[in-house]
Amino acid sequence: MRKPLVFLLLSIALACARPQPKIAVAPPVNTAETEIAPDAVADTLLVNVQSLDPTFVVDLRYATANNFTGAPLPGYLGNRAYVRREAAAPLARVQRDLRSRGLALKIFDAYRPVRATLAMVDWTERVHRTDLLKDGYIASRSRHNLGLAIDLTLVDLGTGQELEMGTPFDTFSAVAHTANASGLAAVNRQKLKAAMEAEGFVNYDQEWWHYTFSVPNPLRFDRPIR
Ligand SMILES: [Zn+2]
Q1: CATH domain 48-212 topology
Q2: Which residues pair with 106 in a beta bridge?
Q3: Is 86 part of the annotated catalytic residue set?
């Protein structure tokens, strides 16, 4: 074994042994290539968020043609937002906190079947936009497949209208980077971020709408959404 390689492996081993920092850091865009868990396991670990709190507004865009691919994605057979059981109660607490301030969460995407992610990757190849994979806007192994990512915005409970966030959901460019906003949009993005972070969710800095949650035993799922 050559010396640089030994050094590299040693460095990695040391880095892994070091205690993790306490600050929340967004995980990598692509998850590990793990086995897909059976649907029976998905049934025990994924929870419909509206079963905890029926006031979540759910507009699952990939179940409709109103998304960047222009067609419903495979595996999206219903307008239901599922997340890993561990993330459901914290999300319900975010919703309760927001409602006390006249706001609510509107969910665009939550758990996403692996087959839908593969369809997104196919789409990038078909329309020659594989740059979106490279630039971190579309993941080929998404944390949404784990039920540990959620795309959402804020709505005003009085009007039912979405708060101004500066760009629509799924804007794949720098203007959607959470820090790239000014005025009301910047205020609203930070309002969403503060509410989510209070319950342990971590924002992806390239997408103001995308939040992740961590569990010790993440699993990939392909169970259709019904
Ligand atoms: Zn997302």
Answers
A1: Muramoyl-pentapeptide Carboxypeptidase; domain 2 (3.30.1380)
A2: 57, 153
A3: no
